[in-house]
Amino acid sequence: MTDSRPARRPKRRGPKRSGGPPAPKDPARRVAYDVLSAVESRSAYANLLLPSLLRERGIAGRDAALATELTYGALRMQGTYDAILDACVDRSLRSVDTAVLPLLRMGAHQLLSTNIPDHAAVSATVDLARRTVGQHRARFANAVLRRVSARDLEAWLEIVAPQAEADPVGHLAVLHSHPRWVIEAFAAALGEEITVDMPETRRLLAAHNERPQVTLAAKPGRAEVDDLVAQGAERARYSPFAAYLPEGDPAALPVVRQRRAGVQDEASQLVTLALTRVRLKGEDARWLDACAGPGGKATLLGGLAGQRGARLLAAELQPARAGLVAGAVDRTINDAARVVVADSTRPPWRAGAFDRVLVDAPCTGLGSLRRRPESRWRRSAESVPELVDAQRALLRSALDSTRRGGVVAYVTCSPHLAETSGVVEAITSERDDAVVLRAADHLPEVPDVASGNFLQFWPHRHGTDAMFLALLRRQ
């Protein structure tokens, strides 16, 4: 292959047990398999299920670290491993039992991207297969994984990745484990043509396969960043509410256990902050979060509203998610937040009722692939138009819900142009009462984030999710 590839990542050794082979029940691999199987069979979210199972089964320390590595490693590199596994089965990988696929991906990750010895990786995975899918399918897994172990990752990529000159997107799809349509969408958002040389697109794809740092948010009025720093976190680069946790479980920090701080991406904090920084003439007492679940932005907005003597209404369509919002904003300063179950496209409140409105619209989630790697396999290009229709409806209703002179923040955790600038431009073209503000003026502390009048965060530039922000004033 003539195209350059990223340097091979050093193999990371999974946490080792002392005193010989794994314990018979191998709790780390079992919990990783259970999570991967749930993701495959019922579209579970690993970032929610894995911590829950670790707590439920009392798994901590090295076993928890190994389970996390196997789960997220297999999910992040699923596209790459599937291309390799497909070359190692006698029939198409699509015909393989979905109960066996998670085992094969776990085994491939151990063989190709960790320092676990090949014989131990194969033996432990096959032993788990016997206990979960039966002897017959365990023999199949054994045969496939032994074929995988015949080459290292670099050698396999020479075989299974398309030539970059002939198929640059297909090459990157195997190399960095992303669907083709997602790579094309990222290249368009970054302003790069589809060629062999797409340096920034490559950097973004590589960033999605790195483990993200944990970012904490101090809830305004209840905690300060100094409280997080005093408990081992590091002050963040941009957000005045954020701190990075270098290692360990966030729940181990007293300030998090006391619900005075929580986990929240820094870009998520910053787009929320930008809305509160826009100057308004006249009243500034009524704020709305129109799509509040699961509650991170609502918590920050509620705290800031309370400090200003304003009140926040947090609306969420799904009752279960509304419950999460209620738990997140509980006891915000001065009881400034109220949560309701409501469809913001058919609002129960009167038109022009709010001074500031946040629309964190449902989207493809392509901006959070570092933390939710399985999301890249959940959506397809065909799902985008339906989401865009919903996003336009929400932004249209948000403007109607805002008083003259008020401001709307339109936010998506996706850089896809159809979901970002495309939505804003479509709505502003159909009405004459909305003007787009220059969003970068309200976050001057963040470099290289402006995209015309909009803001676009990037993992490879800012170390955050790829969050988009547009600010609109209703005239």
Concise synopsis of the structure shown:
The chain is α/β, with parallel strands linked by helices and 475 residues long. The chain folds into 4 domains: 27-153, N-utilizing Substance Protein B Homolog, Chain A (Orthogonal Bundle); 166-207, no CATH class; 214-263; 266-474, Rossmann fold, CATH 3.40.50.
Please give a handful of descriptors for the protein shown.
475 residues, alpha/beta, N-utilizing Substance Protein B Homolog, Chain A, 4 domains, 9-stranded mixed beta sheet, 20 helices, 13 strands, disordered N terminus
CATH architecture of the largest domain: 3-Layer(aba) Sandwich
Shape: globular
Q: Examine the coordinates and then state which fold CATH places here, giving the name of the CATH topology of the largest domain.
A: Rossmann fold
Share of helical residues: 40-55%
Query: Distance between termini?
Result: 57 Å
For the biggest sheet, the summary is: 9 strands, mixed
Instruction: Please report which band the strand proportion falls in: under 5%, 5-15%, 15-25%, 25-35%, 35-45% or over 45%.
Output: 5-15%
CATH class of the largest domain: Alpha Beta
Can you identify the CATH superfamily of the largest domain?
A: Vaccinia Virus protein VP39
Total strand segments: 13
Family: Belongs to the class I-like SAM-binding methyltransferase superfamily. RsmB/NOP family.
Active site: 413
Protein name: Transcription antitermination factor NusB
Domain SAM-dependent MTase RsmB/NOP-type: 190-475
